[in-house]
Write a structure and sequence with these properties.
homodimer; about 325 residues; alpha/beta; UDP-N-acetylmuramoyl-L-alanine:D-glutamate ligase; nine-stranded mixed sheet
């Protein structure tokens, strides 16, 4: 097995976030599931956009956000995801490449347009997401660069991408390619509703030993294991994956590896502005530590630092210099 | 003369800002004029975008920013400007309408695309702008709603729009329509380089009494009057327009009206993040006071409060609740 030239390659939805603050009453009036992610069609996207206040556009997508954090910390990264040949596709591609991440998936011509996620942010900083998957759901298995996957230390996959059929097939092929080359597979469960739809697949993959590093939050852990109690959930899962990482919002995070449990408190934040990307950036910090060979406790700390940065401003891409932030907190 | 149903109608460039932080060295390496606004073609726009870091997109356009502030403060507003029938055009139209501003100019089919302004923000918060005018420069005089202009208390125009030929003709017609209906014309000089190109036009309009309220910053005042000394510039211009409003960054602002001079200091700001839109939002606060019938000193104070809000975050559209901010500062 040769030394990999990329540290983390990810497959994910290629999404531009459209975000605006809103009052709690609007979430209710629009019939949205507070704090959740709902897939929507073009008509519903128009309805929701019409109801949204003045917004800003910032590149998003769960795995892409994680890579943006990883690259900012100094990891070498590559992304695979499908944009359309349109202005939002150019925005997404620009932002990911400008972050120093390799991105070679060709844009897809014609309809549907590039995916967008309409994010309503309530005064408590909670985000409620409605995703129009657009071109993103047509990532063809043929677009996979299997040589690039085999040449990366970790393959990182987002559960969100398990919904659409073509990307699901692509991810299964990617897992086989990574495992065939002796690489690690990291998987984030993304959302409790995704687990409602695809939990059987995820449990089967875990049972088959296809996942080396599993990321979840406490709600997803409960959805996957059936245990509402946090520690019962950890106990049910911890021996089934080599590395289990579970975040629990302001209560910090836990990692279980080789029979040992590690905990980290949440980093203090002056003001929670927008929680979009908190889990994505926690994963970024953790994975950066992991591929750098740091002890698990330090990986957790890195995750907490990155998550704290992202929730202190709008958008799921880092604004502060993460490297400098980490250096300051570890000195 | 009937009571106008709109307080401020503006004609301006319909632009989406694409903004990213950058180091000072990049400004130099790209050959940009620090703090200025340069018009660029599509090829240069590609070059500059390629050199830009991960960015965010926020609706902009000088006069449109001013209206966003005015509407947030409670003034009734309408906007006239040209977008293309594309994704960035949809973004611009959504944001202006979601702010409560009437916007009825039909999108323009085909090339060129909607205007964008590439904004590099240096660590001191200074913005350096490169504008690809795209569809914005094709605002046809026929798109003017002269009845709407005649029905607005103030017609607000941006000097930036004097560069392209069709909008210039449209603005001249708009001025005639407003004056014919006995309305006021407000004009912002926008940029010293615009004055280099069109100073003779601006001076002729002032001499002809076509401008009732003139907005400038201290650099534009010098460019228009030929006086580098601030007070000499004010003296040279103050009797030629009924209301002269000149901002001078951290030194606050001055208004000259009916032989009297009024001053306001700049509002304190915890951290200057991005000065994009400072002048636009100063004009918003001032005009809101003006159409509300406030004394000049209070109009200046409103301007200073709005300018301070806008420079405390990225983007030229207000994020805080301006009404609440003003109420808190005046109580």
């Amino acid at each position: 097995m040769s030394k990999p030239s990329t540290q983390v390659i990810a497959i994910g939805n290629a999404i531009v976030d459209v975000m605006a603050p809103c009052e709690d009453a609007l979430i209710e009036r629009l019939g949205l599931v507070r704090g959740g992610m709902t897939l929507i069609d073009a008509q519903r996207a128009h309805e929701l956009y019409d109801a949204m206040g003045p917004a800003r556009e910032i590149s998003g997508g769960s795995a892409a956000n994680t890579l943006a954090g990883l690259a900012a910390l100094g990891s070498t990264c590559a992304f695979i995801g499908q944009v359309a040949d349109d202005q939002l596709g150019e925005v997404f591609a620009h932002d990911i490449r400008a972050g120093g991440i390799s991105f070679a998936t060709p844009a897809r011509a014609g309809d549907p347009p590039t995916a967008r996620c309409l994010i309503f942010v309530t005064p408590d900083g909670q985000r409620t997401m409605s995703t129009f998957l657009g071109a993103s759901q047509f990532l063809p298995p043929a677009a996979l660069d299997e040589a690039a996957i085999a040449d990366a230390e970790v393959l990182y996959l987002e559960g969100y991408l398990w919904d659409p059929e073509e990307p699901r097939a692509a991810m299964r092929r990617a897992i086989a390619a990574a495992r065939g080359a002796g690489r690690k597979v990291a998987f984030t469960l993304s959302d409790a509703f995704v687990i409602d739809r695809h939990g059987d697949d995820f449990r089967a993959m875990i049972a088959a030993g296809e996942i080396d590093i599993l990321f979840a939050n406490h709600i997803e852990l409960a959805a996957l294991t059936g245990h509402d109690d946090f520690h019962a959930g950890i106990d049910a899962l911890k021996d089934k994956v080599p590395m289990l990482v579970v975040t629990r919002s302001e209560q910090g995070a836990v990692a279980a590896a080789q029979g040992a449990l590690h905990e980290v408190p949440a980093e203090p934040v002056a003001q929670v502005v927008d929680t979009t990307g908190a889990g994505d950036l926690f994963a970024a910090g953790f994975l950066h530590g992991h591929v750098s060979g740091y002890p698990v406790a330090e990986c957790l700390k890195l995750g907490a630092i990155c998550a704290a940065e992202i929730i202190s401003h709008y958008g799921a891409r880092p604004e502060a210099d993460l490297k400098a932030l980490v250096k300051a907190r570890f000195s």
